[in-house]
Amino acid sequence: MSVWDELPGQEQAVAQLERAVADGSPAHAWLFTGPPGSGRSNAARAFAAALQCERGTGCGACKPCRLALAGAHPDVAMVTTENVNYMISDVRELITKAQDRPSGGRWRVIVMEDADRMTERTTNVLLKAIEEPPPHTVWVLCAPSPADVLVTIRSRCRPLGLRVPSRDAVAELLIRRDGLTPEQAEFAARVSQSHIGVARRLAQSEEARMRRDKTVRLPLYLRTVADAVAAAGEIVEISTKEATSSAEERAATETAGLRELLGLEPDAQIPPQLRSQFKQVEEATKRRARRGVTDSLDRALIDLTTVYRDVLVLQLGTGTELVNDYLSEPLRQFAARSSATDTLARIDLIAEARRRITANVTPLLAMEAMMAGLLPRRS
Fold first, then answer.
1. At residue 242, what are phi and psi to the nearest 5 degrees?
2. pLDDT tens digit string along 115-172?
């Protein structure tokens, strides 16, 4: 298994990265772009692992590869902000880290996830480091599209475009890597709309599948304002549990990687001089969970959008395949009770709720306003 196995349907991008690794002198600044679900973070992590690989190929089996993939390699920093935007102090800290020579590997790799969350002032602080990086440092910035990053940064990075993989490619990955049956893999790939991270979570967690199912069923049975208020509260509760669970899983992976790096057995007591490093993982988990609630709510709203997308498909009679095919009968009944115009208005309401949440409106208030708008029109 190589580090590139986590990137289904990205043959062109993988070929470009493999050439850069084999060349031995990769560009010192990269911009990975692609829509949600394209695997930007997976690609950046795989690239970082390949650059540290003992065999120079990204074998996925050597210790540097395994540590990088687990987020525990000392010369690989996978950076994301727990705030709405990166703070200038965060970027200055990264620039300082970029000056350090690698402790064991050939390169010091700094991956900035969500680089589109940098303000113009923050970007200008980073610009000098991108223009004149140390010879041993590789920067990898990730963003949804090139337009989401200031042109001054964009022009100094080698671009790498990723795309959302096909459903078949995601399903094949789930079968090969996670041992799912074709039916299970196809379901996860379908309802995630080929979003690699979401498909993986749905494939691995029955709890995640149950939470999603509960979410997409909510609008099908709304009748009164009381129903709307209850549904809003349920979505916030589901999203909070999802975010907490995800943060805890990631913390467990990071803790295990840190233990391996420090030579500690899984059940060994942590020496006092090392406790601060594990404390940092705990604090990062708390911050990640807080931001995760926003991200999880956004994912829940995307799932709700698929319901109305399917309803619209049925109302217009396009014959397009349903995302939530297993709910086809209740969806048909729901579609018969409203018009395509109503459905489009409801999709707009969900989009507005997504904007409000990213603007820091209280999640419960945003959800209640949206759910009230999704109620059936009185004749």
1. -60, -45
2. 888 888 888 888 888 888 888 999 999 999 999 888 989 999 999 999 888 889 889 8
Number of H helices, E strands in the chain: 15, 5
pTM of the model: 0.74
* Nearest-5° Cα angle at 166, 165 to 169: 85
Cα separation of 58 and 313, whole Å?
A: 43
* Residue pair 129/29 in contact by the 8 Å Cβ criterion: no
Give the SS3 label for residue 54: coil
Half-sphere exposure of residue 194, counting CA atoms within 13 Å on the CB side?
A: 15
Are 195 and 339 in contact, with CB atoms under 8 Å apart?
A: no
- The C-alpha atoms of residue 146 and residue 125 are separated, in whole angstroms, by 19
Distance CA(111)–CA(66), nearest Å, equals 17
Q: Are 98 and 132 in contact (CB under 8 A)?
A: no
d(CA 344, CA 315): 11
- DSSP code of 112? E
What are the Cα distances from residue 343, in Å, to 13, 221, 331, 375?
38, 15, 12, 11
d(CA 2, CA 174): 15
The Cα–Cα gap between 315 and 25 comes to: 55
Closest CA to 311 of 335, 328, 293, 292: 335
- CB atoms < 10 A from the CB of 127, how many? 14
Tokens of 339: 């018009």
φ, ψ for residue 298, nearest 5 deg: -60, -40
